[in-house]
Amino acid sequence: MLQAARYLLGSPGASGFGSKSTADEVTAACPDLGSLTAIITGATSGIGAETARVLAKRGARVVIPARSVKAAEDMRARILGECPGADILVLHLDLSSLASVRDFARRFLSLGLPLDLLINNAGKFSHGQLALSEDGVEMTFATNYLGHFLLTKLLLGKMAETAAATGVQGRIVNVSSSVHGWFSGDWADYLKLVTRRKIPYDATQAYAVSKLANVLHTKELAARLQEMGADVTVNCVHPGIVRTRLNRDREGLITDLVFVLLSKLLKTIPQAAATTCYAAVHPRLAGVSGRYLADCNEALPSPAAASRSEAARLWQASEDMISGSSQQGQVLQYGCWTGTSEHPTSLCPSTV
Known about the structure:
The protein has one domain (21-240, 270-323): Rossmann fold, CATH 3.40.50.720. Helix content is 44%, strand content 13%. It has 13 helices and eleven strands. Helix 6 runs parallel beside helix 8. The protein is globular, with a radius of gyration of 19 Å. Keywords: Oxidoreductase.
């Protein structure tokens, strides 16, 4: 009850910020980010666009990867209209395609730029029936999680190298959602069964699984970064409830009524981008890693998201998936089954 009241009132937490804080406000303590280079996925609209705008306004070089280069160029023009001196780069990236992720990483690394911030923000909520990526992975999971897993893996060396050369700690931010707590089953079984069409497809369930994976990825990556001795942190954020293009696609009388009733709970986009920006650049988060943040303060993830063993299990399954995608015929190797991307057929002896 107290937590709900604090949310509605926007009362600040230990960080000094709360649910009503904006991205501009939380970055006021770091007005000059001119030495930083940030990659922000999903920055053509909504929370990602506001994150890109605010970081560019503070001087950071911002790289906008996007499936629609035109949308990214339009976003670049909008930022330059407000900040004429901003350094904004646009590159093509389709997160649902592991080949596209690899191509993006190669092109970015070929530019010889440093990399201080990686903000894995892009999100997809599938509508309608089950769709598989070109790699044979459920589309929401492929876009929201697996593409980001591979992207992070491919860019981690550059981030560690940049941090070592500059003395400035690198930061990775994974944007999740409190919806991750709506799934409490076995994510591996769920993905296996839904991909093989053994259970009905539920878009909300698929979204929750992808967001649970974001939190587990954060937990395992934080431990691995510490073991590596890399001066790079990773944290996960819940931006809050906000009406973005992600849910505006579900137009209709019932949807509109729900948003009217929940209007007091909704954040503005500047408020929703605050926790991402806080995790990305605020001095208070220096050296802090592996945490789950909401309203610019540390929060508790769901019990399923707090398991280190599940985080390690997901990591291994993810390695299997990204390795399998590169084999001839795009053979899917998802821990507990193999087969073509269209028809996973045979079970492996061991399970993930």
